[in-house]
């Protein structure tokens, strides 16, 4: 009897966690030293290991840093969170399976150097916290019995200069496969258009872990978004004993629906593997049809000029750290789409599988970036993982080999880049390759010489010089326009470590967004840019220190609440026929006080009205127009004019807080967490702005588990997991994991306001 099909076990629930290095033995005498060098006992005596240590119950994804308080003497780049060692332990029942089955254990992401033990045997090591790893554990497991996984994680060594988190922060799975099976990540759906005809090539790598050769057949169905079968394919191969072989077939697809940021049409493939005539395994994947062409006058998607309107994002979110749920990923990507973005740069690491799936579905192009810049076999393995993960996703349009490396401007850097590029093309030669270089592109020999697309962080004055150095070569701004701003704040206050929200304060190493957009517009070979950054992120608080635990560069805060700079970028990223206007600041000031008023817009001119009378007009310059207006309570309204269109926006004077607005922003498509956004409102439903009105909000969670909380304050040193939050400029956020029945129930309270009952 043979294993008939793949069984996938979700190992994300019911782990035990111990912070710190565990005690594995009391005294190391000769016999203990001898025993712990033997298979199955390398982790030590399990009774001592478990009983002499303090273990807590956790679920994956899990970032143990979120359970630790920020400390002034800890690492500023890591958001003042301590680094260290943690251990995980999981005991689970394994179903019966055949002796010839292959069992693969997969960790999608473990932040820190990790060592994995399976039933006491040291089974694998992994160096990088940004890359998935999987390995064969067939020889270590006991089918039909309880089994144990133990993993030690050491995040003492940092890989990045931002908040990195700690622990098992992405899903864990166990795959039980037949001896002859489709290799993980080795299926490639490769659509290609030639001479006006679309062809689809499907290839799979078939592995044989058994001692008998066999004949393999893969039968495939290609389905459109509505589930209609548009093609069927068959491929055959002779599979050697204890070996592998590629199995491939191709077919024409008549007039497929094309994937683009505006129309993310997805297809799927169902592959069934037959061995000697018997079906043994079925797998599915999604892909899309689209063409991308890079030229010296822009990038074309499906033969249409498509400017790269990109944004750079780290992978953490307030409260949950790097253990970001799928619901949060969709929430975040949808925010970026609303800002006008069509491209997402993974800064600076391999994306998660779930992020790519969400970007496929929402129409967000992705620049997938490798963390490390070396030619060692370990880094090449990480690059393989990035390529194999990304190549079936139509959202992935560009690979980036590295970010801001000191050897980038040298001949050895050029050699490393060339070797890494060849490694990418071993598995995917359908996408262009770039790197995010902060200078060096004008030296005699540098990494950009071998790249398909030159990538430049800042250095906008070098755009045209590079075009003369390398005529006809495309370029993209890989990181640009870092704006300092604090949501809801309209006057710089260095003592309070906050910035105003008018969008004109930039980091010393960058240029203002206005100058950057003009430089891109003037350089036709520059296909677009990625702005830094989408969200405030923990760590890298420069130029401030404690208590700034978050950056100040996001166009939204760390909860995803929009800053005014969100609308500034939207004014640039919106198409000319998509007019918009945004008015700031709020309209709660002292009587007679002169207030700086700004409209951010892609219109041509604007007029300002206060309580119905005109108080100003002006021509829009660099997507903004400003006035100085004496305050009086009421309604401040702007009218913006362009191409016959009239756009309006307004702000109103708010009274004291009278109610709590409670909204679950978790998308209906995903529901692994509720995203509870709370805002203070007056009796007329006007949001209450400013710091003076902030108040404590308490949450009583009756069903579900709090996994994160925050308020967007860059100086927020409150706990990440708490049931009470002080609002910041009138807003806060709670993130709740549903209970075992998929339910969330909670009560939201603030003293003097009506309580709100929430159920989902």
Keywords for this structure?
760 residues, mainly beta, 9 helices, 12% helix, 37% strand, globular
Please characterize this protein's 3D structure.
The chain is mainly beta and 760 residues long. Strands 28-27-26-25-24-31-30-29 form an eight-stranded parallel β-sheet. Helix 6 (411-427) links the parallel strand 27 and strand 28. Helix 3 (326-338) packs across helix 4 (353-362) and helix 5 (377-390) packs across helix 6. The longest helix is centred in the middle third of the chain and has 17 residues, at 411-427. The mean pLDDT is 95.
Draw up the topology in text.
Layout: E1 7-10, E2 15-19, H1 30-35, H2 46-51, E3 56-58, E4 85-93, E5 102-107, E6 110-111, E7 113-118, E8 121-126, E9 133-136, E10 146-154, E11 167-168, E12 172-177, E13 180-182, E14 188-194, E15 197-208, E16 214-223, E17 229-239, E18 244-253, E19 267-275, E20 278-287, E21 292-295, E22 298-301, E23 304-305, E24 308-313, H3 326-338, E25 343-346, H4 353-362, E26 365-369, H5 377-390, E27 396-403, H6 411-427, E28 432-436, E29 454-457, H7 463-469, E30 475-480, H8 513-521, E31 526-532, H9 564-573, E32 581-584, E33 594-601, E34 605-610, E35 613-619, E36 624-630, E37 635-642, E38 645-652, E39 659-664, E40 674-681, E41 696-703, E42 705-710, E43 724-726, E44 731-737, E45 745-749, E46 756-759
Parallel strand pairs: 24-25, 24-31, 25-26, 26-27, 27-28, 29-30, 30-31
Antiparallel strand pairs: 1-12, 2-3, 2-4, 4-10, 5-9, 5-12, 6-11, 7-8, 7-10, 13-15, 14-15, 15-18, 16-17, 16-19, 19-20, 21-22, 22-23, 32-33, 33-36, 34-35, 34-37, 37-38, 39-40, 40-44, 41-43, 41-45, 42-44, 45-46
